[in-house]
Amino acid sequence: MTAQSLADGPAGQALLALERGQDAHRWLAALVAEPVMAHPEEASLFEGAPAIAFTLVATDQRRALSVLDDHVEKITRSRLEAAYQRMGRGELADKREFDLIGGLTGLGAYLLRCGTADELLREVLRYLVRLTQPHPDGRPGWWAAHGPTGPGPAWQTGHGNLGMAHGIAGPLTLLALALRRGIVVSGQTAAIDRICRWLDRWRCGVPPRAWWPEAISQADHARGAVHQPGPSRPSWCYGTPGIARAQQVAGLVLGDRARRRCAENILAWCLGDEQQLARLGDVSLCHGWAGVVHTAWRASRHNDQLAATLPRLLNRLAVNLARQPPDGRGLLTGTAGVMLAQRAARTNTPPVTQWDTCLLLHE
Question: Which of 212, 243, 255 minimizes the C-alpha distance to 230?
Fold first, then answer.
């Protein structure tokens, strides 16, 4: 249902227009032209009622938001009930249960953005705290039942996902940002620490020349090491930039200067390593140059070394945009996301729409 997609639909163009102070009516009308999709198994931050609500919260559409927030609450409670039932059966999770793009972390990101449902957000946080409890066999509680892209021979016993979009970096960031906002549940700090220590465990290389794999297989877990010669694509969604930013936020919230500085130094090395940057294949916000720029810009607000990388990164984004513009106009993989990232970094001004809350890159 592309019309109601925060990733690919008119929501991205609406947010861009609002960010520019322009009339967004055309795009908002397209967003709500069809009946709202609110099925608990299909709706998410990036699809259906929550996606529409996320876009409208930047407007004055209060009546529509009230109806949409009712949908979001029902979706969230249904997702929580299903997750607890799954836990009760002792089964592994599907990453879409908890992740940012399709799961409860994404719904929590919307609740943090709207700021009117703190108790429901606390219920999501309690679930995430429980998710961090390890399985009896030592695998983390967020170990997913299938592979990063679905079932496959290499992933028959599931995987541990490290990324921001589909892995544990997303829940880590939500737990930390909520704590920073004063929204606290029992065990929250301990859960943040558990996730951080797991990310430390799977960090490769010696800081600052270090990186994280995208995912851990059962074979990796059993031998205690990943068989990967070097860093993967340095993206927001799966790569070192998103994971480093998550740990920077955790360090800031916990007052852990060592963790914060380590994350910032690794990110700085990544942003200056041509071998890693050469792996970027497009300019998108999700897995391309725009995502790297926006992640670096947000992180740079606490680190002058990172700020110094921005002019060069913005230039690389512009060159690649001219060479190979996106096919679509949406937020995650289209021109809207690229323009929003460029605008924030060039003006060095936090987005008035807080659009990057959907990426958990806000403060």
Answer: 212
Distance, CA of 124 to CA of 306 (rounded, Å): 32
Contact between 215 and 158 (Cβ < 8 Å): no
The CA distance from 82 to 88, in Å, is: 10
| Nearest CA-CA partner of 57 in 121, 102, 14, 7 | 14
Look at residue 93 and give its three-state secondary structure. strand
As to burial, measured by CB atoms within 10 angstroms (0-12 exposed, 13-18 middle, 19+ buried), residue 316 is middle
Give long-range contacts, CB 8 A cutoff, 24+ apart: 62-69. Answer: 64/32, 65/114, 68/36, 69/114, 69/116, 69/117
pLDDT tens, N- to C-terminus, the chain (363 residues): 579 999 999 999 999 999 999 999 999 999 999 999 999 999 999 999 999 999 999 997 878 899 999 999 999 999 999 999 999 999 999 999 999 999 999 999 999 999 989 999 999 999 999 999 999 999 999 999 998 876 677 788 999 999 999 999 999 999 999 999 999 999 999 999 999 999 999 999 999 999 999 999 999 999 999 988 899 999 999 999 999 999 999 999 999 999 999 999 999 999 999 999 999 999 999 999 999 999 999 999 999 999 999 999 999 999 999 999 999 999 999 999 999 999 999 999 999 999 999 999 998
**Token pair in block for residue 21:** 């102070």
Long-range contacts of 297-303 (CB under 8 A, 24+ apart): 297/341, 297/344, 297/345, 297/348, 298/245, 298/356, 298/361, 298/362, 298/363, 299/244, 299/245, 299/248, 299/264, 299/267, 301/363, 302/248, 302/252, 302/260, 302/264, 303/264, 303/268
CA-based R_g, the chain, Å: 19
Rounded distance, CA 208 to CA 262, Å? 7
Give the type of residue at 76. T
CA-CA distance, 141 to 131, in Å (whole number)?
5
